[in-house]
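Recall from the previous chapter that SMILES is a line notation for molecules. Here it describes pyridoxal-5'-phosphate.
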Amino acid sequence: MRSETLSIHGGYLCDPATRAVAAPIYQNVAYEFESADQAAAMFDLEVPGYRYSRISNPTVDILERRVAMLEGGKACLAVASGQAAMSTALLNVADHGGSIVAPPQLYGTTHTLLAHTLRRHGVEARFAASDRAQDIAALIDDTTRAVFCETVGNPAGNICDIEAIAKVAHDAGVPLIVDNTVATPILMRPIDFGADIVVHSLTKFMAGHGVAMGGAIVDSGRFDWRASARRFPMFNRPDESYHGLVYVDRFGDEAYIARARSVYQRTTGAVLAPMTAFLILQGIETVALRVERHVANARRVAFALREDPRVAWVEYAGFEDHRYHALANKYLGGRPPSLLTFGLHGGHAAAKRFYDALKLVKRVVNIGDTRSLCCHPASTTHRQMTPQQQLAAGVSPETIRLSVGIEHVEDILEDLDQAMASAIDPASKLAAE
Ligand SMILES: Cc1ncc(COP(=O)(O)O)c(C=O)c1O
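With both inputs in hand, we obtain:
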């Protein structure tokens, strides 16, 4: 089945109990065991089934199957937020210590997770000089437990060469973990290009309505944890917390998600509520249609901004002369996502005036909503970074990030136009020229 169909039907035919065709909300915590022996077998992970909703839940299950199918993966764990997905995905391979190698273009909180939070847990973050495969390869060594990148960086809009990065990771016996939040599986399926694990903030384009937070980790099932057993004892050696269970022996190509669920989800508890899973499923039903309109509107906005004399620069990989244009064609089928950045003549001061003058476009830190959203990353999402780290992540003091929504594009353009008119004093624009 194709993505448009999977986003509506993936992972669910009808409710086995009632034959309801819409996903039912199993607003339920516990599930009755048939006997002590059956309960024990479940707790030993010998038989599948529901026992407690911190570990699994039938509504959340539907979401997990749907996201796995959309990404072309083998197994999925849905969690409470995108950040819960990032931290679980990385700790699951690095909780015995080691290093994670990443390009500098990352969402600000993910940068903080790597540079500070994981470091305090004994995991070293190594940021490459750029997102190029050779710069990433230069930092991989025996301590490395994963290469991590955003398929399309937020807010830089850089497009990672996933095939090349997967190759340098695999040559070293290391998995490639990617954040596919901005692209969504509608524009790119990273597993098709060699990524091993795909992480999502479902809060963004996937849900799309801006009313629910969630995250997901999808495993391709292709990384050979046995072949890199010295690097990854957690999958290959008996787990004392589970009566000596060896994940690769018991779960084969689902070992990664099985461990994420039974170690992290079970003990740290960043659970996605069934009601929230339901809301996200409602959003996913329309993700293919919405993304199509997001892409078309962003294209119109990017070209209009580029032609506007009040605008100093625009970063958008849809421009033929853009440095990521070829990669946008290769990985996104020529459809850059609706996240773009730009700067006005008049710099930081004009950016602030523009931001304050917006009427339709919302001043928020979210992305991927049906509504058009605007953010000033240097004062919000990327505030915890040093000015140098901000620049490497694609954030200068005047950068304005737009997440172009699916309203009528003329209404979006009119709002940008009136905000620019209030922001740009014609005299200062002429002086800048
Ligand atoms: C690319 C990217 N990844 C992850 C996240 C974190 O997601 P959440 O807010 O659902 O925790 C965000 C949030 O903006 C993001 O933009």
